[in-house]
Amino acid sequence: MSEEAVLARIEAAVGEIAESKGAAQPKVSASSRMLGGELPIDSLDLATIVLRLDTETGQRPFEDGFIEFHTAGELAKLYSQP
Q1: Are 29 and 72 in contact (CB under 8 A)?
Q2: CATH of 3-80, one of 3.50.40.10, 1.10.1200.10, 1.10.3470.10, 2.40.128.50
Q3: Which residues of the chain have pLDDT under 70?
């Protein structure tokens, strides 16, 4: 799956979480910070997004341990690697 496709899935997941919290659906770009930025998500929401990406992409980049990332683009890149 391409980085752009994974980024679209991240944006959809963030949008669903924002909607469930009564927040406006934010625009997610590759430079959007996943935590501590403009996205209305917390660490539990991020864990939910990671699990969803595991299922939707079939990739498991964190299977052997945590890999540091900060932005949606960095997360998308982890899930788009062969």
Answers
A1: yes
A2: 1.10.1200.10
A3: none
